[in-house]
Amino acid sequence: MTLVPTVDLSTWENGDRAKLAHTVDEALRRVGFLQVVGHGIPRATIDDMCEATAAFFALPVGEKLRSAPADRASDRGYAAEGTEGLAYSLGETTPPDLSESFVIGAEHIDGEDPYGFFVPNIWPGSPERLRSALTEYEAEAHRVARVLLEIFEQALGLPGGHLGAYTRHPTRTLRVNHFERRAGAPEPLPGQMRLGAHTDYGIVTVLYADPVPGLQIHGPDGAWHDVVPDEGALVVNLGDLTAQWTNDRWRSTLHRVVPPSGPGPSRRRSVAFFFDGDHDARFECLPTCRSPENPPKYPPVLGGEHLYAKITGGRTLEPSDAMNTAADRN
């Protein structure tokens, strides 16, 4: 992946922190994506997650639909192919995405939950190991996101804990996407994607993906570029709230998942952990990212209000009017 640099997170604990923070800053200024190794997630945890999710998606559709939420706008449980469209989060109208998904998230919060971000997860009866496998993987991805937040603080010239103050009770979501083209499937509709072009919504995304083509990012040159992660590596990208924090010093990069180019069956899985901050935190331009010559580009926004508008747009297939940091890009 020549466009997306690789960084070793293990050097944060036992290496040159300043060098790592500078490398991350340069990459996020240029493209908004990283590939990370040395993340410390045990191989067994990744393998268990992959095996359990493969077993779930292999079930008949009717069996999987038992784990669908009663409320279509809810960001929990199973969503069948053709029922979501991520481009709607940018206010776009497109054909539904050619993917199915299973979503879990944090369930408990001390205090109010006005947006329903901490509702109970929906667990299927089969496979039984899905709950333990996804819960263990989610905890590891959360740990990685916390390490990244520490690196971001140094890269942005902020005191330790400055960004952490926005994540005391963060919205945390793990979304497993499954893309499968079966023999005899019809051709996609014009403009139809496995996941439509979108930016992520919150602070940072930690992604495990099968080393299979499909993910594309919108590069600084205005073209779409393929991103295939190395075996065992994770892909990291930023969300809209970080773009607002940094006044577009770092960008939340447009990305999509395209249908396979060749004929015949095709399968791909991705597992995205979204670390999206506190619902009651006020996100506005950071002090190190503004000046009289570079005033804030975005108005302040409450984290929960922003996330709710983005999530419901994709789930209900209605264009969102939430902040769009990609408005100047095609």
Your description of this structure?
This protein is of the alpha+beta class. It contains 7 helices and 14 strands. The protein has helices at residues 11-14, 17-30, 43-57, 61-64, 130-155, 240-245, 303-316; strands at residues 6-8, 33-37, 77-79, 100-105, 172-181, 195-198, 204-209, 215-218, 224-226, 234-238, 255-257, 266-275, 282-283, 301-302. The strands form 3 sheets. It has an 8-stranded mixed beta sheet. A 4-stranded antiparallel beta sheet has the order 6-11-8-9, with no helix packed on it. A hairpin with a 5-residue loop joins strand 8 (215-218) and strand 9. Helix 2 crosses helix 5 and helix 3 (43-57) crosses helix 5. It is globular, with a radius of gyration of 19 Å. The model has no long low-confidence stretch (mean pLDDT 88).
Largest sheet: 8 strands, mixed
The helix/strand order is EHHEHHEEHEEEEEEHEEEEH
Strand order of the largest sheet: 1-2-10-7-12-5-4-3
Query: How many whole angstroms does the radius of gyration measure?
Result: 19 Å
Molecular shape: globular
Structural class of the helices, strands and pairings?
Answer: alpha+beta
Approximately how much helix is present in the residues? 25-40%
Strand residues, percent: 15-25%
**Contiguous helical run count:** 7
Termini gap: 22 Å
Mean pLDDT level: 88
Keywords: Antibiotic biosynthesis, Iron, Metal-binding, Oxidoreductase
Domain Fe2OG dioxygenase: 169-277
Protein name: 2OG-Fe(II) oxygenase
Organism: Amycolatopsis oliviviridis
